[in-house]
Amino acid sequence: MPTVIRVLIPVPLQALTRTGREVEVRVESPASVEMVLDALEAEYPMLRGTLRDQVSKQRRPFIRFFACGEDLSLEPATNPLPDDVVSGREPLWVVGAMAGG
Amino acid sequence: MSTVRVLVGTRKGAFVLTSDTGRENWQIRGPFFAGWEIYHLKGSPVDPNRLYASQTSGWFGQVIQRSNDGGDTWEAAGNKFVYEGTPGTHQWYDGTQHPWEFKRVWKLEPSLTDLDVVYAGVEDAALFQSSDGAQTWQELPALRDVKGNLWSPGAGGMCLHTIIQDPGNPQRLFTAISAAGAFRTDDGGQSWQAITAGLKSNFELADSDAEVGHCVHSMAMHPSHPGTLFMQKHWDVMRTDDAGELWYEVSGNLPSDFGFAIAVHSHEPGTVYVVPIKSDSEHFPPDGMLRVYRSRAGGNEWEALTKGLPQNNCYVNVLRSAMAVDSLDPCGVYFGTTGGQVYVSADAGDSWSAIVHDLPAVLSVEVQCLP
Questions:
Q1: CB burial class (10 A; 0-12, 13-18, 19+) of residue B315?
Q2: Are strands B126-130 and B362-370 parallel, antiparallel or unpaired?
Q3: How far is B103 from chain A (nearest CA, A)?
Q4: In this predicted structure, what is the pLDDT of residue B203?
Q5: What DSSP letter does each residue of chain A carry, written as one string?
Q6: A chain contacts of residue B80, beta-carbon cutoff 8 Å
Q7: CA–CA distance, A82 with A39 (Å, rounded to integer)
Q8: Nearest alpha carbon to residue B272 among B348, B364, B352
Q9: How confident is the model over B131-156, as pLDDT tens digits?
Q10: Residue B353 and residue B343: Cα distance in Å, rounded?
Q11: Which residues contact B195 (CB under 8 A, 6 or more apart)?
Q12: What is the DSSP letter of B175?
């Protein structure tokens, strides 16, 4: 059964998507980061390559994924998302890591 | 009324500067793609309203932007740059071998003859071609067969930064790579040869006249003399009159033969412009004086052009893609600096004025003349 996932995208990418900070994507259950990214890139093709490599699907080094106060970045992208994200109570945060001085 | 449009790529976005042909009163638009590094913007010679921009970020990777209306609106185009086959390794700074990894697009060169053909020069160095207006990209991999394992990155990365198409023979392309050298194809990219005979890199290569490994900073050609190329190498300003079969030095009386940018007058094939930079460790003009040097003799004899340029306490750099000429008469010459100035000369370099003073560091400058 499809699930609607709320996704917060980094501010610099909003000029590409021409959306606000939050977008919604529809994915099949059980939803995972990988499925959300697949759906996000299908809905917004201009994001391809900006969050993960287009061939290897590896997360770009300065991109992180957070949900419910947890850093999901180092977990397998196929892991199920937290229940509160699946239910829509919480968004999945896609974050450009703070770096530099 | 005719319009001059200057496309400026900077560390933090793109800017479009427009003027009538007097080139005195300018309108500034931008920043476009604010916050992103814009390595290069260029318009198609076939349709000047078709623009391409290389938008890049250490966080978000490479984006290619395309405009069909002269920059009023932009759409993200294809950004999938995948090397053909197993890309292998090249030489790293410490002499070890290092895997080829795509980092960014340095140069976008639209075809002189086909609206939908555009070339992309990338880091790690390779040449890609699109035949559908930048929607999809295919590498021309034979270039890396020219001893690619011996190429190594310059201080700015191992970038393919110069792409020149021969206007009399669209199958002939010249490319330049830091630090690999200069290359030519006569068959549209199916095969390549190094064109480095005559280059000397005494302080950079164990074999100073090796076939590859030379740190070429940029090259320029006049379209009416496609066999004559001028090169600003890491050290030395060079010239060839036989499409790269043999280069000879034309640094002559320049105060420094180090530099990045080089351009050729649009109506005088033997008039060349460079901006001497003190050295590779001090990336600023000698003596704090920003001087463009012009040779009307095709090199060797250079004159300093200083009128309107800061002649004290100036410590900016002019990067390899940051100088261009327009096709008006008198020829206009333009360059941007790492201090954020874009200068114009509407009299072939005799006098200069700043169009803007305070942009982010300028990475590239291109000029279009519109009817």
A1: middle
A2: unpaired
A3: 11
A4: 78
A5: -EEEEEEE--HHHHHHHTS-SEEEEEEESSPBHHHHHHHHHHH-GGGTTTSB-TTT-PBPTTEEEEETTEE-TTS-TTSBPPHHHHTTSSPEEEEEPP---
A6: 48-49, 54-55
A7: 18
A8: B348
A9: 999 999 999 999 999 999 999 998 88
A10: 5
A11: B174, B181, B182, B183, B184, B240, B243, B244, B245, B247
A12: E
Q: How far apart are CA B86 and CA B80, in angstroms?
A: 16
Structure tokens at B260: 């990045």
User: How many C-beta atoms surround the C-beta of residue B308 within 10 A?
Assistant: 15
ipTM above 0.90, yes or no: yes
Q: Residue type for B176, please? A: A
Over chain A (101 residues), what is each successive 10-residue block's mean pLDDT?
94 96 96 98 98 96 96 96 97 87 60
Question: Given CB atoms, is B63 within the 8 Å cutoff of chain A?
Answer: yes
How many other C-beta atoms lie within 10 A of the C-beta of residue A75?
A: 12
- The residue length of chain B stands at 371
Instruction: Indicate yes or no: pTM above 0.90.
Output: yes
Contact A62 B58 (CB under 8 A): yes
B225-243 pLDDT per residue, tens? 999 999 999 999 999 999 9
Domains of chain A: 2-96 (3.10.20.30)
Number of other residues whose CB lies within 10 A of the CB of residue A15: 18
Contact criterion met (CB < 8 Å) for A12 and B61: no
Quote the CA–CA distance of B8 and B170 in Å, as a whole number: 26
Q: Residue B141, SS3?
A: helix
| A11 burial type by CB count under 10 A (0-12 exposed, 13-18 middle, 19+ buried) | exposed
Cβ-Cβ contacts under 8 Å, A49 against chain B: 61-63, 79-80
Point out the residue among B33, B34, B79 whose CB comes nearest to the CB of A49: B79
**Tokens of residue B86, six digits:** 């197993």
